[in-house]
Amino acid sequence: MLFALRMGLMGLHFVVAGILGLIIGICRPFNPDNSRLCARLYSMPALRILRLKLSRDAKGLLEHQRSCVIIANHQSNYDLYVLGRVVPKRTVSIGKKSLKWVPFFGQLYWLAGNVLIERGNAQQAKQAMLTTTETLQHQDTSIWVFPEGTRNKGEGLLPFKKGAFQMAIAAGVPIIPVCVSSYVKNMHLNRWNAGSIKIRSLPAISTAGMTLDDIPELMQRCWDLMQQTIAQLDAELVRA
């Protein structure tokens, strides 16, 4: 019963937040800070509806003063609500071009200045890379990427794809990893308190002086750091 009520409220919230976000996008189209505002619109009410207790240790991320590439582990569609609380100012993301046709959400996602690419299209992927490099270097904007490329469904961190690391090196900007505890399998939406989640941002990793030859080592370094941190967050929740 509680699960059904929550899902009904979440469906209503998704529509209302989408309409409000769309209004923001129409009033100030392609403003790179639209994503942060819309992320808050989706996240803050949703966490209350779901009764998820969120603990954030992301001061370094939120106070970072220059463009960067933010990488985070990707567990489920609920990431929109969980990670929406820590999206910093002037941050956009990269999404599938098909998102543009999702009612309300897709249109506001586009108007927020996010980069839409057609997966499997090499020419468009190359153009997207040029666009994101330009954004990072000259528009005082950061880019949020899920380097696993797909949801891991709480089964552990998947191997990273190299796009985020190519962007960071090409633009000469640091990478900031953001780690979320493994919440998917520990989220009980049919209980009054659905669960606890921890988020922690790690210190920025410089890409200064790196070339494309450094990508494999950089990817492995980031993967190892995130894997260790996620395990720490999970252990902290068990002890709590």
TrEMBL record:
<keyword id="KW-0444">Lipid biosynthesis</keyword>
<dbReference type="InterPro" id="IPR002123">
    <property type="entry name" value="Plipid/glycerol_acylTrfase"/>
</dbReference>
<dbReference type="GO" id="GO:0016024">
    <property type="term" value="P:CDP-diacylglycerol biosynthetic process"/>
</dbReference>
<keyword id="KW-1208">Phospholipid metabolism</keyword>
<comment type="similarity">
    <text>Belongs to the 1-acyl-sn-glycerol-3-phosphate acyltransferase family.</text>
</comment>
<keyword id="KW-1133">Transmembrane helix</keyword>
<dbReference type="InterPro" id="IPR004552">
    <property type="entry name" value="AGP_acyltrans"/>
</dbReference>
<dbReference type="GO" id="GO:0005886">
    <property type="term" value="C:plasma membrane"/>
</dbReference>
<keyword id="KW-0472">Membrane</keyword>
<feature type="domain" description="Phospholipid/glycerol acyltransferase">
    <location>
        <begin position="68"/>
        <end position="183"/>
    </location>
</feature>
<comment type="pathway">
    <text>Phospholipid metabolism; CDP-diacylglycerol biosynthesis; CDP-diacylglycerol from sn-glycerol 3-phosphate: step 2/3.</text>
</comment>
<comment type="pathway">
    <text>Lipid metabolism.</text>
</comment>
<keyword id="KW-0808">Transferase</keyword>
<protein>
    <recommendedName>
        <fullName>1-acyl-sn-glycerol-3-phosphate acyltransferase</fullName>
        <ecNumber>2.3.1.51</ecNumber>
    </recommendedName>
</protein>
<keyword id="KW-0012">Acyltransferase</keyword>
<feature type="transmembrane region" description="Helical">
    <location>
        <begin position="7"/>
        <end position="26"/>
    </location>
</feature>
<keyword id="KW-0443">Lipid metabolism</keyword>
<keyword id="KW-0594">Phospholipid biosynthesis</keyword>
<dbReference type="GO" id="GO:0003841">
    <property type="term" value="F:1-acylglycerol-3-phosphate O-acyltransferase activity"/>
</dbReference>
<keyword id="KW-0812">Transmembrane</keyword>
<dbReference type="Pfam" id="PF01553">
    <property type="entry name" value="Acyltransferase"/>
</dbReference>
<dbReference type="GO" id="GO:0006654">
    <property type="term" value="P:phosphatidic acid biosynthetic process"/>
</dbReference>
